[in-house]
Amino acid sequence: MKRNNKNNNYSEDLSKEDNMTQEQESFVQNDNINDNLSEEEDTLTDEEAVEEETLQEKYDELNNSYLRLHAEFDNYRKRTLKEKMDIIKSGGEKVLTEMIPLIDDFERALDTVQNADDKKAIVEGLELIYAKFVSFINQNGVKEMEAIGEPFDADKFEAITTIPVQDKAQKDMVVDCIQKGYMLNEKVIRFPKVIVGK
Q1: I want to staple 142 with a disulfide (CB 3.0 to 4.6 A). Which of 86, 93, 96, 137 is the partner?
Q2: Do 191 and 157 form a contact (C-beta atoms < 8 A)?
Q3: How far is CA 37 from the centre of its chain?
Q4: Tens of pLDDT along 37-47?
Q5: Residue 2 confidence (pLDDT)
Q6: CB of 123 within 8 A of CB of 110?
Q7: Domain residue spans in the chain?
Q8: Domain 141-198, what fold?
Q9: What pLDDT digit, counting tens, does each position of 124-150 carry?
Q10: What does DSSP assign to residue 172?
Q11: Which bin fits 89, alpha (ψ -120 to 50), beta or left (φ > 0)?
């Protein structure tokens, strides 16, 4: 019986050792699994860190690009505004310098009118100045608008009044022009004041 007890104790001891060995193996396996998981986490963390760095670099690059582009556009806007202001200030300079000879002609004509007795010479001088002035405005894109005999168009003419006409062909036509109209490069800059037949 003692022997049986010893055998039982021995069996229990073996069983305990087996259990301990199994627990140790389980612990070692768990430890290995944990090590593997932590290595994978480290790998994932490294990959995430690299990805985050890449994204940060792209963000910084795009942000710098945006800031440069914004600054360039701001400089462009300021430069074009300055150029526009310069054009507006000096835009009329060319026209005005070309008008100075006309002023000279008018001054000479005024001197001549005061000292001359020949009315015909005065009229010829004024006609020459007038022709020179008309030529000047034509060279700068200003053209006189034809009005008399044209059908009335409210977009092109300003009607002062209407008069009854006997000829039906003149009905709704411009029969007289009180003040001439002018166009600058196909844009009406002064509407002709006209009388329309009714």
Answers
A1: 137
A2: yes
A3: 58
A4: 555 555 657 77
A5: 46
A6: no
A7: 1-91, 92-140, 141-198
A8: Nucleotide Exchange Factor Grpe; Chain A, domain 2 (2.30.22)
A9: 888 888 898 888 888 888 888 888 888
A10: T
A11: alpha
